[in-house]
Design a protein that fits this description.
Elements lengths: L1 H9 L6 H16 L9 H23 L4 H14 L3 H21 L7 H7 L3 E6 L2 E6 L8 E4 L8 E7 L1 E4 L1 H4 L5 E3 L4 E2 L4 E2 L4 E7 L5 H14 L7 H4 L1 H19 L2 H10 L3 H20 L2 E3 L4 H5 L4 E4 L1 H5 E12 L6 H12 L5 H12 L7 E7 L3 E6 L2 E6 L1 H6 L6 H12 L3 E7 L2 E12 L3 H10 L3 E5 L4 H11 L3 E3 L4 H13 L4 E5 L5 H6 L2 E5 L5 H6 L2 E3 L7 H34 L5 H20 L7
Amino acid sequence: MKQLEAFLEWGGTKKDVTCLVIGGLALLASIFGLLPLPFDPAWIAIILCGVPIILEAIIGLVTAFDIKADVLVSIALIASVIIGEDFAAGEVAFIMQLGALLEDLTVARARAGIEKLVHLTPRTARVLRPDGESVIPAEQVQVGDLLRVLPGETVPVDGVITAGQTSINQAVMTGESLPVDKGEGDEVSSGTVNQFGSFDMRASRVGEDSSIQRMIRLVQSADAGKAKIVGIADRWATWIVVIALTAALLTWLISGEVIRAVTILVVFCPCALVLATPTAIMAAIGNATRHGFLVREGDALERLAGVAKITFDKTGTLTFGTPQVVAVRSLAPDAEEQALYAWTAAAEQRSEHPLGKAVVRGFRAQGGDLLPAEDFRMLPGRGVQAVVAGKTILAGNPEMMEEHHIARSAQAEACAAQYLNEGCTVIWLAVDGALAGLIALSDTLRPDAADTIAQVKQAGVQPVLLTGDHKNAAAHIASALGLDEVRAECLPEDKLDYIDASQQNGAQVCMIGDGINDAPALKKAYVGIAMGGVGSDIAVDAADIALVNDEIHELPHLLRLARHMMRVIKCNLTFSMTLNFVAIVLAITGILNPVVGALVHNAGSVFVIINSAFLLTWRK
């Protein structure tokens, strides 16, 4: 059997374009008598294109009794050769291999990207022991060990901070666009990045129990449980074989003419049936590519046509994923808002914190010139301090205000609460030891997000928001977009569980995300679409489709295209089967011989290809 498989691979199977080209030229030579050979040139097509089909059929039958379309094709090939209809045999073999090649091109498998997740796994850890600090492999860390994490390092295991203050980039786990301030008693997860301050932590979950390892297992399990669509010709192959053989046998017995029986086998070959799906998919993929979608799984559009829900990640998908200043509020009578903005931007100009950079970027966008700042201090997990225009400026979180004994009135708290309820992040501002105001920042919506959601609803698909952000931010975004179902504070397993539960209840789900934390959900979903521009390469690897330019307003077109593609496929199938049955009737009556029968039934293949080609430029 291994020798057969090796020969099958040598013969090119469905991927050897060279064999197809040579086989096609040989058929032309047979028609016009171009080659002075002692045998019919059609035999070249039979050997190059037909033998691999026969070997595939034999291997499938012997190893698993798997009856596919190639079984009937093999029978028709052998019968045609036996009665001397070499051209009919070569033509059928060539058409079938052409369809198989198209099918191979559309069913390319996307790599899971798990190896890239593995690269995110921390390699080493700093362990604090009575005899001093030592660096050991991360897998050797034990529960209860005391560890130290320096700025810029990846947290090696899950644990709880015992000393120090910092800001942690948790995008790998939650997808949050902003780093999260952490202090004593707060939990940290493996794979997240310590941005500013150093801290000590006590290990609580290590090795295979750590967060990053659990995510890797989620991606693996989601991929393994994702069923692949089987070609329709192969699903119906058993019935096609039975009907064809029965019709051929009865015709032979009744008419006594073996050529009629062979003609039935030839016209019953499912060439157009095999071409119906891959040609439409190839054309639809070409259309999707013109609108910014890279289709990485051949059957992704076929699956997309059947989804009932589309789950959106928030950060980087419906929003730009970068904070922007949305409001500057003065809370002191002698503090003008523009002056506060200028002083804060000056104090933040040396900050590496994303919020500080957003303040500076926003101020410059207004055409402001940064003032010089002196005595700059970065306070990890708190904020910044600097002297600007002779004034001591503090810009940071509530803990920073408390540590510097800056009182906040009830009116100030109410003002901040208004922005917090809208999903904003608030920077408190103090000037010379007194509360002066606040700056509110928010991740801004894409301008086409609301229209995209509305069109998704019009298409009869339910949009759902799944985000790792806190409830206030999620609720504000959902309200602005008209989303009825929202799940906030989702970890990767939460998103995966929601998708799994929906699909178990019969509602197939399309997931759209951009972050590493979305990879398990993208794999688990019936269809996964990754934001290719801003998204991580791991998310793109986990998805079936990548939106290269991040223009989500094209998403409704992709939905409509997938559904129209399925209508074209059904039209192709109906026409090809109708033509086949008409040809069978003509073959039974003796009107068609094998060569003419092959030409007639291959007219169905031509129609299928032309009809599918219209998908290239289709747009509703």
